[in-house]
Amino acid sequence: MTLQEYTGRTVELTVARISEFGYFLTDGQEDVLLHRNETNLELEEGEKVKVFLYVDSRGRQTATTTMPTVTVGEYAWVPVVDVMPDTGVFLGIGISKDILLGKDDLPVLESVWPQKGDMVYITLRVNRNNLIYARMASDQVIQDISSPATRQDFNKNVHGYIYRTARVGSWMITAEGFKGFIHESQRIVEPRVGEKVEGRIIDIKEDGTVNISLLPRKQEALDKDAEKILEYLESRNGAMPYSDKSMAEDINDRFGLSKSSFKRALGKLMKEGRVYQEEGWTYKK
């Protein structure tokens, strides 16, 4: 392989000569510069050194002794460090140059693009101009690194990262390595690619993949709904013109809850002796 073909990969080269601004490395046929800013090593002529080759902001091939977290042909989880609308997202791979994951490799809707701090599973690719770009792992790649779940994992709380999302649902891989699908009915909002989410396993398929729900468990949801009602009561000095006889539309407009959820939460508060109803109003005790 030529040095150009090693772009995006690591290679061992020999120090051919030394200048005040760096080291010229060679494979015996071609040379590449290892700038002093790209190494903390003191090298001598004839010494062999392992470097990563990439193209700098001026389009020149250059070397660094800093090993990236991912190379061509390998995959790794890397963080999003910047987002440029209409262009894509930039990823940190451990070297001085951030790598672009272009918009063509991202969802059509920018609202579900990864944001700064999100993690994506990618490899590197080199285009015809010898520039390095990121490519997200395919579903098959995720399948290859995943681990099968067992019946003992049913109803288990899990967390992990979204690697693909669509209107019908989202796909994630959990910290345990389970490959999971989140149906659109099991999420409140569509999560971003690269977003860390928490949920629970609601089904385990024969192949060991899982279905996951991001919705809160019933008791957790009930507690949140009850707290929402109490907060509204407190904002109105302990009285509100809503009860279990109120219209569903009015309840949804005010609390964002279905009437059945509102009634369950209100019933919980009444059972606990924290509120009471009178003539279509609810009062805090």
Automatic annotation (TrEMBL):
- A single Pfam family it belongs to is CvfB_2nd
Q: Where is the Conserved virulence factor B second S1 domain?
A: 75-134
* SUPFAM superfamilies named among the record's database cross-references: Winged helix' DNA-binding domain
Domain Conserved virulence factor B third S1 stretches: 143-216
InterPro entries per the UniProt record, alphabetical: CvfB_fam (IPR014464), CvfB_S1_2nd (IPR048588), CvfB_S1_3rd (IPR048587), CvfB_S1_st (IPR039566), CvfB_WH (IPR040764), NA-bd_OB-fold (IPR012340), WH-like_DNA-bd_sf (IPR036388), WH_DNA-bd_sf (IPR036390)
At the top level of its lineage, which domain of life is listed?
Bacteria
The Conserved virulence factor B first S1 domain covers 8-65
User: Where does the Conserved virulence factor B-like winged helix domain lie?
Assistant: 227-283
Q: Which family does it belong to?
A: Belongs to the CvfB family.
Protein name according to UniProt: S1 motif domain-containing protein
This protein's species is: Mesobacillus persicus
